[in-house]
Amino acid sequence: MTEEENKQRMHDLLVEIETLEKDRSPIKQQCTEAIACLERAHEMFVQRATKEGFSLQDCRVGEIEIKQYSAMKQMAIKGGLPNEHYDQRIREVRVRLFGEQMVKDNFD
User: Fold this and answer.
1) Helices 28-51 + 3-22 axis angle, to 10
2) pTM here?
3) Engineered SS bond to 49: which of 7, 10, 54, 96, CB 3.0-4.6 Å?
4) Among candidates 83, 89, 85, 34, which has minimal Cα distance to 67?
5) How much helix, strand and coil, in percent to the nearest 5, is found in the chain?
């Protein structure tokens, strides 16, 4: 799936989720698909960033990754899906950027 196709699918899913929520219908499947789109977007972002010469230790890259994982967590919560592993992924990015001790002192 291309980046544009992924963006379009994500948009379509968000519209579908909004409609289903208004109708009080289940949204778990759509949220699962939306998380898959967000995961693909994250993979594409990391590939593009490294291809363009950005280090994964760059704070700007880490900030975007944390926002992406936060969006995945929010979508999981919305769909009633497990979400704790996104906290771990966010923590891993913080450790990569700031080091274990700083994360323990400021985020844990």
Assistant:
1) 150
2) 0.92
3) 54
4) 89
5) 80, 0, 20
